[in-house]
Write a structure and sequence with these properties.
With 635 residues, the protein is α/β, with parallel strands linked by helices. It is 40% helix and 20% strand. Helix 20 (584-591) links the parallel strand 21 (562-568) and strand 22. The protein starts with a helix and ends in a 7-residue tail after the last strand. One of its GO terms (cellular component) is chromosome.
């Protein structure tokens, strides 16, 4: 089957599954349930409105209650303004064009606010994200067309394995004193690559630092605008800030997830608002609104003269808005032409303001967490691509198990690393973990090539401590309980907090309260995390340290780190079933979050059926880090 035909089929399967899940969440749910699921803001208040492109109305709204509820409303997604008086009929669809804290702007597919909008009970519902799927689908179709063309198809053929990447051999070695040897090697590989370079960045190896220096070097090399993308707004924000810190002129397309004045100042909207021509636009928009307001004052039962007058007013407003659009386009073009680096999410790279742009180089960060179809959106704008990430950590979330099984969860990074090892640089020195915490992951996932920088290799919480502990609950009767699709182990949770309490008590003599080590308690299972959170609430001795303790799932913790990490593996049964603990990449994430202390709690009897866990327990024994939970039973 054709490469892209297969991807299109997998994407279709995923889209159907995703839509089904969305419909199940929304079709019969109340506004309160949708709000709790992060799909709705309700109630809201309208704070202002203005005309925008294409005779559409942009409305600014504020979430007036439930402001601490997490939500999925973000820049670029489709949403609907509704009235809860009659939510089926009183609704206008649109696109969110800005979101920060408890304010958002939605561009509605109408030129005036409906009458019902003044009756209260207003809300914003998230619609199914067809736009992202459309963009991915269109990119795959375009790739199908372009792959046969000699010039445009070359990069596609390399990424799909039909051709090999090539490298310059005559570019002088570029030296950046602040980088280590493998980071330098990665930068030079990127500079020498004609079509493809891959930066494999294990945990704590300074991948972002390396990429930022590489992007800076690329700009110095040929002064060609660079597109830098990532699957999440959070990753884009980090790169945007760091690139700007290096003195590059960065333009952030889209809406940052992180609320910071610094980041906002780098966005297209913010830079446009500071542009010299913006005063003229504001003046024109005011005029257009005035004409529109005058036109709307005419009642429905008016005569021919009034109808003509009304029409003339609308025409005048429309003409003014055309001038606004052309001036806005001039501003956007001006800002884009001056930017050295453009940053966006994968889908955001096709935002209407930058859709037409082509680049010499596109850099995709966190490529190990990016769905392949989404990667093709920016790739088709490039002659050369840099993929950076770690395919040995968690892959992107795929909702359809069928699509995942058939290859959608395999990333382009993983494929290209296997296809083109000559394009890959492994960052080999990590700056996070004590070497005993790092050792097992290095052995299993990184061919034993990872080494700890001298600043962290031996670091401990205090001289008498050890960096690694595996506490074996085998034979303790801590049996798991299956709850729906999740698993819990109440006794293991209780034991973990007894152990943590004793450990924290022992740290008191070494740390003052203001400088206490950060602690994470993580588990693969959501229900176990709930139990662990409850245990924390009911651990009076830990309350003085609660601000230092985070409890979450492993998946939610990817990309983070803490001084101390406790892992509750949860599974304990006579059938030796371990469920998705068998995805060892999840455990790679879990085991590499800790800087100075890693405590893994689990049942060796259940876990040892999988070689990964049997070998980890052997590694712990070798490091004198194995303990039986029985040793702590009198806690």
């Amino acid at each position: 089957m054709d490469y892209f035909k297969k991807l299109l089929d997998l994407l279709k399967t995923e889209r159907e599954e995703d839509r089904k899940a969305y419909q199940e969440l929304t079709e019969t749910s109340s506004v309160a349930e949708r709000r709790a699921n992060g799909l709705c803001w309700y109630p809201i208040a309208i704070r202002g409105s203005e005309m925008s492109r294409g005779d559409y109305l942009t409305v600014e709204v504020e979430r007036t209650t439930h402001q601490d509820v997490a939500h999925q409303l973000r820049f670029g997604v489709s949403a609907v303004l509704f009235s809860n008086h009659d939510a089926k009929n009183n609704r206008v669809e649109g696109t969110i064009t800005y979101q920060s804290r408890n304010t958002l702007k939605i561009t509605l597919r109408t030129d005036e606010l409906p009458d019902w909008s003044s009756d209260g009970k207003l809300g914003i519902d998230l619609l199914f994200d067809d736009n992202s799927y459309d963009e991915m689908q269109n990119a795959l179709k375009l790739a199908t067309t372009l792959q046969e063309k000699p010039e445009e198809g070359r990069l596609i053929q390399i990424l799909t394995g039909a051709k090999q990447p090539t490298f310059h051999t005559d570019i002088p070695h570029y030296t950046i004193p602040s980088l280590n040897a493998s980071q330098q090697e990665a930068v030079n590989k990127i500079l020498n690559a004609n079509e493809l370079a891959i930066v494999h960045g294990p945990p704590g190896t300074g991948k972002t630092t390396t990429l930022v220096q590489a992007i800076k070097a690329l700009w110095k090399q040929d002064h060609k605008q660079i597109l830098v993308v990532a699957p999440s707004n959070t990753a884009v924000d980090l790169l945007t800030e760091k690139l700007s810190d290096e003195g590059l002129n960065v333009l952030r397309v889209g809406n940052p997830a992180k609320v910071s004045d610094r980041l906002m100042s780098l966005t297209l909207d913010s830079k446009a608002s500071e542009h010299n021509s913006m005063k003229e636009i504001k003046k024109l928009k005011r005029q257009a609104s005035e004409f529109r307001d005058m036109a709307h004052k005419y009642k429905r039962n008016f005569g021919k003269a009034e109808r003509e007058q009304r029409q003339a007013l609308f025409t005048e407003a429309r003409n003014i808005m055309k001038s606004v659009e052309s001036t806005e386009q001039y501003i956007v073009n001006d800002l884009i032409s001056k930017a050295q680096v453009i940053t966006a999410t994968l889908v955001g790279s096709n935002h209407y303001t930058v859709r037409h742009l082509k680049y010499h180089t596109v850099v995709i960060d966190e490529a190990g967490q990016a769905l392949e179809p989404a990667c093709w959106i920016p790739i088709l704008k490039a002659k050369k691509v840099v993929l950076a990430g770690d395919h040995c950590q968690l892959p992107p979330t795929v909702k359809s198990s069928e699509a995942a099984r058939n290859g959608l969860s395999t990333t382009l990074l993983e494929k290209c690393t296997a296809l083109h090892p000559e394009a890959v640089t492994l960052l080999e020195e990590q700056y996070r973990m004590n070497e005993n915490i790092m050792g097992y992951s290095s052995q299993v996932f990184y061919e034993g090539r990872l080494k700890a920088h001298t600043s962290v290799a031996q670091h401990l919480l205090h001289d008498a401590d050890t960096a690694l502990n595996f506490v074996d609950t085998s034979g303790c009767g801590f049996d798991e309980k299956i709850e729906g699709t999740s698993t819990t182990n109440p006794e293991e949770a209780a034991f973990l907090f007894k152990h943590l309490t004793q450990f924290v008590t022992g740290l008191q003599g070494h740390y003052t309260n203001g400088h206490f080590p950060s602690i994470a308690v993580i588990s693969p299972y959501k229900q176990q995390v709930q139990l662990l959170k409850e245990q924390l609430l009911h651990s009076p001795e830990l309350q003085p340290y609660a601000e230092y303790i985070t409890v979450n799932t492993i998946d939610s913790f990817q990309g983070q780190e803490r001084d101390i990490v406790y892992i509750s593996l949860t599974r304990s049964n006579t059938e030796n079933k371990i469920g998705f603990l068998s995805d060892i990449r999840r455990m790679n994430v879990a085991m590499t979050r800790a800087r100075k202390k890693l405590v893994v709690i689990g049942d060796s009897g259940t876990l040892s059926n999988l070689a990964f866990y049997a070998d980890f327990i052997a590694y712990a024994e070798e490091k004198n880090a194995y303990q039986s939970a029985w040793e702590f039973m009198d806690l």
